[in-house]
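Marked as duplicate of an earlier ticket. Keeping the data here for the record.
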Amino acid sequence: MTLIEVVLSMVAKDLVAGLFTTLQNNEFVRNKECIYYYSKLITDILRTLQRHGYIGAFEYIEDGRGGKVLIQLLGRINRAAPIKPRISVKKDEYERWTKLYLPSKNVGIIVVTTTKGVMSHTEAIKMRIGGKLLGYVY
């Protein structure tokens, strides 16, 4: 078994953290696309990143196991990282966390999971709902 086969056969423990790390690494080496594991949460996060212009199109690929997602990269991500542990935030506390994780006021997004679904922190502020922080991208 080669090293690549061992890495591909390993079980992913935290899919969200792995997604942000995979996006960061593939943008760093200037790949045009990358492949990642499929899950409903992953596609919701990708949809949010696509809505804000950080990634291009993505499509589901059936591989007979759990499926994969092919993600088109646009070269617009400078930093993508998970927020661990997943911090619960009230509707009026987003300002504190944007100062901590984002480089400036109108640069980047924090991905939040709420009762209304996965969205950016700006959308959650407009809807006046709290949630849990998943990661940030700028």
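See parent ticket for discussion. The CA atoms of residues 47 and 116 lie 14 Å apart.
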